[in-house]
Design a protein that fits this description.
Elements lengths: L6 E5 L5 H11 L7 H9 L4 E7 L2 E12 L5 E10 L8 H17 L4 E9 L3 H9 L3 E9 L5 E8 L13
Helix pairs in contact: 1-2
Length: about 170
């Protein structure tokens, strides 16, 4: 088995937007139309995006935003994890999530980030397994359905000193 070149994660720039939007439209198509949502997310102040590259070639992205809830502190909302179909299963998603967790843990030292949460489809077993590898657990929140009909599963992971306590829920 030939070892793949390492995945490099960097902050996304304005030049990456088209690639991120196009990939999101492709990989999220089974769940609904996401082109406008991703375009809007990337244009929103305070939304952060990261790009995965292998040998300088775009192969994935991650989008995260922050919200405040009734409970003290910030909540990170993982809006999207996108991996080119040809690169799925090759460690790109793991590299993006590892970067996100490290970035949030570092940020927690300066800002009160409580937790990161996300939504995924009930039939997306591969994504759920990947998220569990990074400490995410189902919250039991009822979040409805995607436009494609899949049941939305909410997952969360604590950040910082709360990380050993398992999932957290707002309020």
């Amino acid at each position: 088995m030939v070892a793949l070149p390492p995945v490099r994660i960097r902050a996304a720039s304005h030049r990456d937007r088209a690639s991120i939007v196009d990939l999101g439209e492709e990989v999220f198509r089974p769940f609904g139309a996401y082109r406008k949502a991703i375009t809007d997310w990337l244009a929103t102040p305070g939304v952060h995006a990261f790009v995965a590259e292998r040998n300088g070639r775009f192969c994935g992205a991650l989008i995260v935003a922050f919200t405040r809830e009734e409970a003290p502190g910030l909540w990170a909302e993982l809006l999207a994890v996108e991996v080119l179909p040809a690169d799925q299963g090759s460690g790109v998603g793991k590299a993006l999530l590892a970067h996100l967790v490290d970035w949030l843990e570092d940020l927690h030292q300066r800002q009160p980030v409580r937790a990161v949460r996300l939504s995924t489809a009930d039939d997306n077993d591969i994504a759920q397994a990947l998220f569990r590898q990074f400490g995410f657990e189902a919250t039991g929140e009822h979040a409805g359905r995607y436009d494609g009909g899949q049941v939305i599963v909410r997952m969360a992971r604590s950040v910082g000193v709360d990380a050993s306590r398992g999932p957290v829920t707002p309020g």
